[in-house]
Design brief:
The protein is an alpha+beta fold. The protein has 24 helices and 30 strands. The strands form 10 sheets. Strands 2, 3, 4, 5, 10, 20 and 21 form a 7-stranded mixed sheet that branches. The protein has a 5-stranded antiparallel sheet with strand order 12-11-25-24-23, sandwiched between helices. Strands 1-8-9 form a 3-stranded antiparallel sheet. The radius of gyration is 42 Å and the shape is elongated.
Amino acid sequence: MAQYSDKQIEEYLKKKKKREEKRTRRRSVTVDQKNRQRLSVVFALIMIVMVYLIFKDAWWQVVRADDLQVKATEMQTVDTSLDPVRGNIYDSNMKALAQTVTEYQLYGYTNELYRADGISQSEKKENVRKLAEITGKDQADIEKALKGKENPVLLADGLKQSQIKKANKEFGNSIVVKTKVTRSYPNGAFAAQLLGGVNSDNNGLMGLEYEYNSTLSGVKGRVIRNTDSQGNPLATSSSKYYATKDGDSLVTSIDEVIQHYVEDALAQGMKDTEAESISCIVMNPRTGDILAMASTPNYNPNDPYRPSSDDDYNSFKNLSTKEQSDYLSRMWTNSIVSGVYEPGSTFKLITASAALDTGSATMNSRYYCDGAINVDGTMLHCWNNSHHGLQDIKEAVGNSCNPALAKVALDLGAVKLYRYIDLFGFNQKTNVDLPGEGTAIIKNTKNMNNVDLATTGYGQGIAVTPLQLLTAVNSLGNDGVLMKPKVVQKIVDKKGKTVKNFPDVAVRQVVAKETADKMRDIMEYYVSDAGGTSAYIPGYRVGGKTGTANIAENGGYSEDRVTSFVAMAPMDDPQISVLVLVRKPSKGEFGAATAGPIVKNILEKTLVYKGVERKYNSREEAALSKSEVTVPDVTNTDSQEALKKIQAVGLNVKSVPAGQEKTSFSVVDQYPKAGTKAVKGTTVYLYSK
């Protein structure tokens, strides 16, 4: 092993130290370079972020400044809508058929009324006391509401306008008022299909409510306030109030009394015939006014999802979901306006009118019936295969003879018959002011043969709406002039001032006055001496015509029938016309048996109510003298006492509104009037306030 001197060792250590210092210096230089690089990157990132924030801030404060201002305003603004009062629907005597019940809701800002900084306990108690006094609520309930977390909080609902005025005067911007309106039908299931109904937003869904929705609904109002994030009104803010515009009201041609007569008669008819449904429309043939309209089964617009009759409802509950849906659809539909049916023999009035007006037939024309007629090899039979023999046109209509009216149509010819079908309005809608009007189904003259022409002559192979048929027949009671049917007579504002009138509209002259006179004579003969005697009313000249038609189904005809009776009175000065349709009757086969008694019931009561004087012939006077009684005077008496007096002379009693017969009320009016001669069994209607 080599030996190193101390000097060598010392030099070695010095050299080693120098090498280490040199390495340390190099390492230090490397670290400083890396640090500078890191710092540069960090600085660059900071600069980028700062530049981004500067530009972003400029974007929000300069470019988006207007949008942000709008949003800030929206966040600070409470916009409360105020519902207007929906207009009423009145009958022709200004009795409400549909009305709006308005309730007011009172909300309070808790931080203004109870929890505001600086408000004393005595002030809190005074606010609670005043609110309770105005609303009629307990002070404990008001205080509990004001202590809650909601802001504004509901303090009371169901308030009257007078209460709201007091609250506004006392508390100003510290309260908010909201309106809550509901639709009410005071007579329940009354003229339901005609009036229709509304949805949860108080918008019309059916009937007049739908047709005149924009008129009835009015315009909403608004209250706008600026608030803080807690919903409290700002001290420097001011509120804006935009008043509601209440809806206008409808004054209809419907007469509540006649409508009651119709609905009572239909209810009895359902019991007598056990039909699937019965429909009726009553009009003034001179003006086109619809005086009553009803269908069964019906419903209560206050509760439209169930039939009004308990028996019908019990049957309804046992139906499947789909069957219930179909049932409701039929129940809500106004079939008088929307539905079509084969008119059957009632259409013979149209055929006879066209023949007499053109001269292809006269009152002396003769038609032979041996039970059938051969038309191009097709045998068309009479309704009962009877042999009517030789008959003139009045007797042919009176006998409701199919072969005779087929011959009348063939003599008239397709072109002329269909020209009169058009003139009577069957090729167009009547444009009645009700929604969903249906259209007739009529064959084109180019595609029809003689068999089609012959069957059309007695009302088969053609489908019309009930409203079209009665409107057409009305022209015969109006000297041949066709009138446009209407329901609404005028529109009035909430003060009763007329906004718009709906005048009577004459559409056109359909047949000559002389033709109309002859047809009224034929119609009267049918009721007094032929097949329509079920509607005969002693003392009144009633005219009409029945109809029976099998229901078209699957390209053919089913065994089910629609029976009908169209009538008018008095025939020397027609004031009332009626059409009754009985669909699928279980009892009674023809219109005279099913619809005739209903027509008589309605016509007799209506003519008495309208003050039309009875004019008895000698035969009638002799027959009726034994059964007539004098209606006692029961006005301004208690209803129970009135009931005893009326029943004592052999008359029946019903209250208006219905269902009050077993309760006591003051009788304010009666129909028929005191002193009127009435046949035993006639119903006297007692009216309460």
